[in-house]
Design brief:
This protein has 3 domains: 46 residues; 40 residues; 41 residues, no CATH class. The chain starts with a helix and ends with a helix. Strand 1 and strand 2 form a beta hairpin. It is built from 5 helices and 2 strands. The radius of gyration is 35 Å and the shape is elongated.
Length: 131
C-alpha cells in the first residue's frame, strides 16, 4: 500500500511496475545490510577460530552424507524390516456393466503365479508351451 501511495504522490518518470521494482531493491538492500551487521562489527582480517570451523564443517559434512546415504539406508532391504518379499500369487481383472440395477459381466480374466522352482519338469514344459 505504501508503494502505491508513494508512487501516486511523488514526481517520478518511473511507471508503477518500475517503482515497485525499485521498492523491492531497496527492501533487499536493507535486509542485506541488517543480516551483515555482524560482519561490520568483526575486525577486518580476523581469522575464524579453528574450533568453529571444525564444528561447523563437521556438521555440514555429516548433514550432506546423511542426505545422500540416509534414503539409501531407509529404503534398502538390508535395514528394512518390512522389506520382505511379497510375491504376487493371483490376479483377477473384471469388467462389468450395471444397467438399471442389473449387473452384466462383460469380461473376466484370471491368472495365477507358480514358482518355477516348485514345478515339475512336465508342468514347466506345459507353461512354456502356453507362451
Amino acid at each position: 500500500m505504501r508503494v502505491f501511495i508513494d508512487w501516486t504522490f511523488t514526481k517520478t518518470a518511473l511507471d508503477l511496475f518500475q517503482w515497485i521494482k525499485l521498492a523491492q531493491i531497496q527492501a533487499d538492500l536493507f535486509k542485506a545490510k541488517s543480516t551483515s551487521q555482524s560482519y561490520f562489527e568483526k575486525k577486518l582480517g580476523k581469522k575464524i577460530p579453528r574450533l568453529d570451523k571444525i564444528l561447523v564443517g563437521f556438521l555440514l559434512v555429516l548433514m550432506v552424507v546423511f542426505l545422500i546415504v540416509g534414503p539409501l539406508l531407509l529404503f534398502s532391504t538390508l535395514s528394512n524390516s518390512f522389506g520382505t518379499a511379497n510375491p504376487i500369487s493371483q490376479a483377477t481383472f473384471k469388467v462389468s456393466l450395471n444397467v438399471s440395477g442389473t449387473p452384466y459381466q462383460l469380461l473376466q480374466l484370471s491368472s495365477f503365479y507358480r514358482r518355477v522352482d516348485a514345478l515339475s519338469d512336465r508342468q514347466y514344459e506345459d507353461v512354456l508351451e502356453m507362451q
